[in-house]
Write a structure and sequence with these properties.
3 helices, six-stranded mixed beta sheet, single chain, alpha+beta, about 30% helix
Length: about 130
């Protein structure tokens, strides 16, 4: 093989490796989503907040989310739930945007899941 053929082959292999890593790890291209369970006397839901949203809070944890909600009075977030992916595996995915209103009986705690967490939809085009 000539030097030119070797370079072309190496370039194609490298491009394929880059494309494979982005396709198999889509979270690398988006902000990480943290899940929290919001519990009231009547109900509980799981919400997802990305790193950009959490950066606006005092702390990037459940306490920071609770303090932000208490100080501002409201918070808009994505409600998360379990769904089946196209391949048939279960995943945590955003269902709809919800508005939370501060309440004295409200509790926020971190939510862990063994399932894949789907990133938030891109809302910049709206």
């Amino acid at each position: 093989m000539s030097v030119r053929s070797n370079r072309l082959l190496l370039s194609l292999a490298f491009a394929g490796l880059i494309l494979e890593s982005v396709a198999s790890h889509p979270a690398l291209a988006t902000s990480k989503v943290s899940l929290f369970k919001v519990i009231t006397a009547k109900d509980e839901i799981v919400i997802g907040l990305d790193d950009d949203q959490l950066a606006a809070f005092e702390a990037k944890n459940a306490g920071g989310v609770a303090r932000h909600l208490a100080s501002k009075g409201t918070l808009t977030a994505w409600q998360y739930g379990v769904r089946k992916a196209e391949a048939g595996a279960l995943e945590q995915a955003p269902l709809r945007q919800v508005g939370l209103i501060a309440n004295e009986a409200l509790r926020v705690e971190p939510y862990t899941t063994p399932l894949k967490i789907v990133p938030l939809p891109d809302m910049t085009g709206q």
